[in-house]
Each structure stands twice: as C-alpha cells, then as structure tokens.
Amino acid sequence: MNRPIAANLEIRATKDGDRIACRGCGHALAPAGQPWKRHAVLREMSMNGAGGKAYTGEREALLRQFGCPKCGALLDSEMALPGEPFLDDIVHA
Amino acid sequence: MDPITFSIIRHRLFRVVDEAVITLKHVSGSAITNEGHDLMVSLYRADGSLLMGGVGFLHHLTSAAEACKAIIRRFKGQINEGDVYLLNDPYTAALHTSDIYLVAPIHYEGKLVAWSACFVHVYDIGAMNPGGFSPDSQDIYTEGISSPGLKLVDRGEIRQDVLDTLLNMVRSPEMVTLDIRSMIACNNVAKDRMLALIRKYGYPTVDEACATLIEQSEKLLRARLSELPDGQWQSRQYMDVKGETAKVCLTMTKKADTLTFDFTGSSPQSKYALNCTKWASLGGLFAPLFPLLCYDITWNEGVIRPITMIAPEGTVVNCTRPAPVSVATVGAIQSVNNAACATIGKMLAASEKYRKEATAVWHANHFAVFMFGTNQRGGLAIGILTETFAGAGGARTFADGVDVGGEIPNPISRMANVETMESTFPLRYLFRRRLADSGGPGQYRGGLGMEIALTPHDAPDGGLHYVVSGKGAKYSMSEGLGGGYPGAPNRYVWVHNNESSDKRNIDPSFALSLDEMPGRTEDISWGVFPLMGKDTLYVAWNGGGGFGDPLERDPEQVRVDVDGRFVTREAARKVYGVVTDAKGIVDLAATKSLRQEMRAARIDRRAAE
After folding, report:
1. What is the enclosing helix (H) or strand (E) of B308?
2. What ipTM describes this predicted complex?
C-alpha cells in the first residue's frame, strides 16, 4: 500500500522494494530511507521576486525547486545560497 | 490516584498560571507586556523541573526551569519562605538580559514544595542602546545589567538596596520598577493559589498529582513519537547582519520514541548580538515542539525527557562568554525555533495520522524596532513597535496560513492599536495594512505579513530615534512545506524627506505607498537611526511559508486573492499560472494550458545531481 510522506511524495511498494515516488504519476525516485532529491529535476531561481513583488531580498539567494522528472509535479522547495548541499529529508519505510 | 481528583488538580494548575498572567498584566504598565504579551508565567517542582508551562513566549519554559535550578544551587540553605530571586544572565539561564526572570519558592508548612517563575521584557536594562535590544553591543558587558542570581525579596521584604542599585543603572527607572513589581505580584498570586490548592487536597495528594502529570506527559509524547515515522529531516536558516551571513543548520532525527535536534554545521558565534546560549537554543527548539507535538499534552518536564539537543560550543546557537546576545530572541533563538518548526512540520506531514497537524513556518523573520525619545507630554518614551508580534501564519496541509496570524512561539501574541502607539509616541501612522504577495505561494499559501509607515507628529524634539535589530531583510526565513515557497523577507527603509533639492522639507503625509514617498530611500536593518522632521520609517514584514505546489491552487481562490489584494495579478500569472481576463474573471482553458506549459518547463531541466 502506498504511504504519502509529503504533499507530492509517497512510499510505494515495488518489485524492487519500497521506493520514494511521485504521488502524481508514481515515478520512483529512490529507495525508501535514502535521499531522493538527486533523482529529481532541479530548477533554481533568484529568491528576489520569486513569489511576487514583496520578495525584495538578496538576489544571490536561490529558490531551489525539485520536480518530478516524469510529470513535472513540484516535490519540494528550499532556499539556499549557491553551493550549499541539498537539505536531505529521509523517511524510513 | 483517582482520575477525577487528578483531573481537577491538573485543571487548577492551569488556572493558577492563568490568574498569575492576569495579575502580571494588571500591574505592568508597558505596552510590550500588555499589548505584545511578551511575557511568560510557569510553575516548577521543588527541584526546579517544569511542572506546568504557561502561556506567553514558550522559549522561556525550559530556560526558567534552569533559572530555578541555578537559584537552588547558588542559594542552597538560604532559600526562605517569601523570598523572590532575580536572574537575567544569558550564560546562566536567561535568553537575553532584558528578559528578567523573577522566580519565587513556594513553601508549605516550612517545606519548599514548588516554584513559580515569570518574565517580562523590562522597559530598559541599561544596555548601550535603549530598550534592551542592543545591536551596537559587541560583548555581553555592554548589554546592561546581567545577574546570575540575586535575592530581591527576603522573607517578604523587598531589598531596597538591591532594587535601588538596579534602578540606578536603567533608563526610565519608574517603568522598570513597575515591571519588577508586576512580576512580584504575579509570583505572589501564583503562590497564594498553589497554597490554596494544597490546603484543599493536602500536600501528598497534590504532590502525587504533579508527579503523575509529568509521567503522563512523558508517556503521551513517547507514544505519539512512536506513531510517527522514523527518519531524518533538515532545515537551514540564514541571518544577515551588516553584510555578514550566519547560518543555523539543523538535522532532526526521530528514532522510536525519541527526537534528537543536532545543530552541527551552524556558523561560529558572531561579533554581532544575534547569538544565543545553549539554554536559549533549548528553549527555541521547544517553542514549536510544545504546540505542534504536545497540543493535547501538558507542557512539563515529561515532554523534555525524550528530547536531546546537540549544539556545538562556540557557534551562534551555543555561544561562549562574552559574546553579545541581546538580539538573540529575534536572532539565533528565532532561527532555532524556525528550523525546529520546519523539521517537525515535515515529520508530521510524513504521517497519515498527523498530516493535519503539520505546518509551514510562521513569522520567521521576527524583528525588533524600539522607539525612544521625548514623548508629546515631555516624558521619556521607550518601547517596541508591537507590530512584530502580529506575525503571519504558515500554511497548513489543508488551509492557507492566517494573515497577520501571530507566531508559533507565543500563542497569545498580538499588536497594539495604531491609536495606542500614537498616544505612546509622538508618531503618526501613514498606513498599516496587509502586504500583497508576502505569503509564501503554494497550493495553500502562507498568511500575509504587513507594511507600515511612520512619521514624527507633535514631537517636542522634532522627532525621535529608533533601534532596529532587523535581521531578516536579505533572506526569506519562513520555510515552506511540501514544495510551498518560503514567505517574503522583511524590509526596513529610512525615507529621508528632509533632503529636497530646494532644501525644503517634503511632506510624506499623503503618500499611499513606499513608492509614493517623496524622499530618498535607504534600506537599513541594524543600529540606531533618526526619525526627525518629515522622515519616514517604512517596515514590511514576512509572510508565512506556503504548502504544496502553487500550480495546484484552486484558480478561483487565486482570483479571490487578487480581488482582495492578497496576491498581485502579476504573481497570479507568473507563480500560480492563473490567467484572468480584463474583468478579472479566470480563463480556465488558458489557465490549464499555461500550467501545463509551466510543468513541462520544470521537466526540461537538468537532473538535480
């Protein structure tokens, strides 16, 4: 049985074991209990202006968006300065 | 013990705290206490462990426990009935010097049976900048009076020599006296009501109920943690001060019925006063933990037991003396609170049962602006713009965040009316309103923050000055959840309306926005600045974080947001992918098409690795 773990992520039982997968299309990203962001598509934009006119902050600060490579669903977002490692969230099955 | 008696005693303990809070507010004369509710009252066991965490700023519940324990250690054998102790040293237990703890032992038939503790942010603490937040300080020695513990009331009698010494070192001593007396009164009421409870049910019964209450809280939290998935969640917060960026890093690990908060990787302590001590970090992580994980569990020592904190020494989250900490409550403590809120939110969102309890981060760019100068009646006025307590709610997994919805660490925070502020200071508000686009976009958006503009009015000295401890202007700090964007950052702008080309003052009175202000604008965030003549101070504060994909937000809801000026038309199209016609009606076909394009554009990217 699939178990949601975030807005657009779930743990899905597959023949290869439990996988972190997109809730929208079922695309498997990584084994459960391991970081998954490296298997998503990454879009980076300046935080300045990212959410509208009130976003007046530092241009160098980035909004990272991790999308499903198959359907384009937005899986997670994080703010980071250039070169920072991804925030790795790991959920065990 | 029988469950009915237990429940009655538990309920009475809540009411003891409530009544003590009311007393505190009735006696205190400062807006920060009465309007902002920057206060806390709690009850502690005889050994200083937390028995009943009260309302107000939740950062203080664990720190005040440590304050009780520090007093027990320092005054061993000298703690008498009727004593009251003062402690405000951040390196002993407090958060920063201006949040003074007054802790009082409660004796029954000559035996120490409990403690009551409270704090208020006093009117002034004698730091180099007025009001307690002291951005110009670069060590603890310039942050005002700092006591690791002194006896202020000895067996029911105020030690006037001690009080006079304290008052001799602060601005506006009459207001600080009132602050201190409000806390003495608060502790007196807490003591009286506790003793009434003990007299009614007997000490053994009350003591057993208190011990059971702590055991119950521990059991309930451990059971809840056991229901949540094991895993690890991370958060990162940036704080900007005068061109420097400090970082708070958190990895929260949940295993079985325990939680570990590890701040390894956080920046070395700063020369600026945004640092915090380890007790403050502990308080910071518990501030969101109490309401998010223990909303139906009594906040006491039992909740603390399953939790471990790792905070490397010499970092912004566990600084060493004499690092300055006066801005800690809106600096590193707030960032610890934000990071803990983010990781707890992600953990809850990973649970089918608790998903509805998850939240994006609330009002993370908490700031402090203290006005000071001569008021319209010729007296000295020092006080905070209570707008900082108005906050902004983070989005939930099923609903938008509440606009101007307060903050997680203080469930009773609020801001004063404009009229109250204008009667306290020689100021006029040009506007105070919700700030469009400030809430983090998402399927459910973050609650909006606000924008205000102030100019001097009826000021005997031609204006006044203000202290800005305003980290949070460069970086969004209210993290989103599940793809939701972080909320907008803060902004502080000094508009120089005294500098027209023909040397005449330009009047900003009828400006409806920052863009319409006639003078030269200067972004500021840290230090002391003038608000003189026709100058204007503009402050905008963050929105809450959003939840989920903005492209999944109901287009009709986006239209409502645009109509209500919560979201601009530009953001509706660019961020939410919603197309409207000239009349503002949603074009569903065009919206569907645009959203498909935007999703496709996401795929047409490189892999994250």
Report:
1. strand B307-310
2. 0.98
